[in-house]
Amino acid sequence: MERPFTTIEEQIKKLEARGLNVSNSEVKNILAMENYYNVVNGYKGLFIDKDYNGPE
Prior knowledge:
- By secondary structure, the chain is mainly α.
- Helices cover about 50% and strands about 0% of the residues.
- It has one domain (about 10-45).
- The longest helix is centred in the N-terminal third of the chain and has 10 residues, at about 10-15.
């Protein structure tokens, strides 16, 4: 299944919408070095905000 290209900024917005804490300034570098799939599926535990209760 082919997925559309998304920019780093779009990937960050998607992570935030899913409740991940992406406030760290290194997030752009991590997404640039790793891909979105690896971050979400392999490293999501590092970014998840356990206190997140959904959009307000």
